[in-house]
């Protein structure tokens, strides 16, 4: 009877050992899955961080471009004023030339 009980205990131990190994194998596979997900997530965080950094840089460059465009618009307006003044001066010179020729006659 001692041998029957010892063989039953050995069989129970072997069965438990097999089930434990199977569970550990499943957990190792799950762990690999979790590890891959963690690596993907960390890469996703890095990508998101880099994307946010790039977006911020683009936003700053866009603001500078907008400011430069406003300055160029103002410069263009002033150049237009100066052109108008020079055009008036040219027209005035033509009038003065006519007066000078009239006085010379």
UniProtKB/TrEMBL annotation:
Pfam families: BORCS7
The keyword Acetylation is annotated on this UniProt entry: no
Gene Ontology CC terms: BORC complex; lysosomal membrane
Superkingdom of origin: Eukaryota
KW Metal-binding (keyword) present: no
Keywords: Lysosome, Membrane
Residues forming coiled coils: none
Compartments reported by the entry: Lysosome membrane
PANTHER family given in the database record: BLOC-1-RELATED COMPLEX SUBUNIT 7, BLOC-1-RELATED COMPLEX SUBUNIT 7 BORSC7
Family: Belongs to the BORCS7 family.
Annotated protein name in UniProt: BLOC-1-related complex subunit 7
